Automatic annotation (TrEMBL):
Residues 111-256 form the BioF2-like acetyltransferase domain. InterPro entries: Acyl_CoA_acyltransferase, BioF2-like_GNAT_dom. Transmembrane segments: none annotated. This is GNAT family N-acetyltransferase. Pfam families: Acetyltransf_6 (PF13480).
Length: 409
């Protein structure tokens, strides 16, 4: 490589945007080898040697199981790699079907619990499943992403956390649509009647499925829909001969029961070793980054991260009404003989938008009582605001929302 001007130019990139969205790693890498499968999954020749003159290129979030090759390494281009976070994945190569995977990774009681969640959901609601992979209309895609955005907003308001995907939502949505039709991404949906209650978006490269973003309707939380979603994704991946499900980084407490591999994310500093400013800057940034993540791991070990997130939640503000997301309720079983006459009650249609706030407590009742949405009557006392009776085939409860006191009988 030829040295020219002494100034150092700095460029920032994100690996997954290049690798999964644009599908082009040029000019930074010429090949990628998947160490899980021992196969080269990307290769492209690079022609513009002068691109790297006096440059330091910082690329974030490269999984270390993807072994990359940079161009012109013999002519003066160099790379430094620094480990950052842990990532989590499921190696599926050894499994012929879902039962094989579950039997090896879950005990009998845990497998029974997973079956119970799905059976209970299907018994209580009119449930269907759909995987979009290879074909989706723009209208349906737009509807699904609108529903997913609403789920994420409510879920993260409930958790009192920021969601960074929402900050770039339009860009993210625009990039996913063509990938689905090219079989480079998939969207899995659980429907109750015709309404999505769980949506997961997965990006695909070769035999790797990246669990990109997912959320669910928090009204169905009792049914552990996230676990049902994961079971369905793993089953689909095995049936379609995918070898790895990459669950990416973060939320280890949820992912640990599913994974069988842990890897490291890296930051790569690619720099022109014939340029003194580039050498100095790349080495300085690599060293300071290494120290930062060493401290980060210590703080995490000492649980300072939990303290930090707890403090952030105290100052969290949302555009949504948090009281509607987490209702305070008082409930009691009510015998059929104590249900008031019909002239003291209004029967509620659940598709009436103004009654959305009662859905979670109703669905919790369905889960606990094994009742079906098709046979439960939702009754509101005319003279007592926010007081409802859920009358099922074998169980009834009276519920007061927002902490009001139940009328004594």
């Amino acid at each position: 490589m030829n040295a020219s001007k002494p100034s150092n130019k700095i460029e920032h990139q994100h690996f997954f945007e290049l690798f999964l969205a644009k599908r082009d790693l040029a000019p930074y890498y010429v090949s990628v080898r998947n160490l899980f499968s021992e196969k080269i999954i990307y290769h492209k020749s690079i022609g513009n040697e002068n691109y790297f003159n006096n440059k330091t290129i910082i690329i974030k979030d490269i999984p270390d199981y993807l072994e990359v090759e940079i161009p012109y390494e013999q002519e003066g281009l160099k790379i430094k790699k620094v480990s950052t976070y842990q990532g989590y994945s499921i190696d599926l190569k050894a499994y012929n079907n879902l039962n094989d995977y579950l039997s090896e990774n879950f005990g009998k009681a845990s497998r029974s619990k997973l079956r119970r969640y799905q059976n209970r959901l299907e018994n209580c609601f009119n449930i269907s499943y759909k995987m979009h992979y290879g074909e989706i209309s723009e209208a349906e895609f737009t509807f699904i992403f609108s529903e997913l955005k609403g789920m994420l907003e409510k879920r993260f308001t409930q958790k009192k956390e920021e969601n960074y995907e929402l900050q770039n939502w339009e860009k993210y949505q625009k990039s996913i649509f063509p990938l689905i039709n090219d079989k480079k991404a998939s969207i899995f949906i659980i429907y109750s009647d015709n309404k999505p209650i769980d949506i997961s978006v997965n990006l695909i490269f070769d035999k790797i499925v990246y669990s990109s973003i997912s959320s669910y309707d928090i009204n169905y939380a009792a049914f552990s829909i996230g676990s049902i979603d994961m079971v369905k994704l793993i089953e689909w991946c095995i049936n379609n001969k995918f070898e790895t499900v990459d669950l990416l980084k973060g939320y280890y407490y949820y992912k640990q029961k599913w994974i069988n591999k842990i890897y490291e994310y890296q930051i790569h500093f690619i720099y022109d070793a014939t340029s003194f400013p580039s050498v100095c800057y790349a080495n300085y940034k690599a060293m300071s980054t290494k120290y930062f993540y060493t401290l980060f791991r210590l703080f995490k070990k000492w649980k300072f991260d939990e303290f930090y997130h707890n403090q952030k939640r105290k100052f969290y503000k949302s555009d949504l009404n948090e009281n509607e997301i987490d209702q305070q309720t008082i409930s009691r079983p009510i015998p059929s003989g104590e249900i008031p006459p019909s002239n003291e009650l209004n029967e509620i249609a659940l598709d009436d938008y103004k009654y959305n706030y009662i859905k979670k407590v109703l669905y919790d009742f369905l889960y606990m009582s094994h009742e079906s949405i098709n046979t439960v009557k939702i009754l509101e006392r005319k003279k007592t605001p926010n007081t409802f009776i859920f009358a099922g085939k074998t169980n009834n409860i009276e519920v007061v929302l927002n902490g009001r006191t139940l009328n004594s009988k």
